[in-house]
Amino acid sequence: MYDEGKVDAMAREFDDLGHGIGGFAAGVVFGAMLGAGIALMFAPESGDGTRRRLRRRLERLREEAGEGLERARTAARRDLERRRRRVEEGPERVADRARDAL
Predict the structure, then answer these.
(1) Domain ranges in the chain?
(2) The dihedral of CA 68, 69, 72, 78: what is its sign?
(3) Average pLDDT for residues 79-88, to the nearest whole number?
(4) Is 0.90 topped by the overall pTM?
């Protein structure tokens, strides 16, 4: 029932699998570090420059968003006023149509 050769083979296979996973993880970490180093060497500008550029871009986006909200607010107010007038004039129009129909 107990086959020592089979157990040894399974133990060796398990050990090989563990080394494979550890080697893979070490390769991933080494690759990430190498990629980060290369990216830093070829970065177009310093961290301060990048932060300034991002800050300016975010400010422009904030201004554009504010302008868009203001346009939407103005359009909503116009639409609301138009709909309010139609509701207020509705009974008069119905009465006019009823008179025309008689």
Answers:
(1) 1-43, 46-102
(2) negative
(3) 88
(4) no
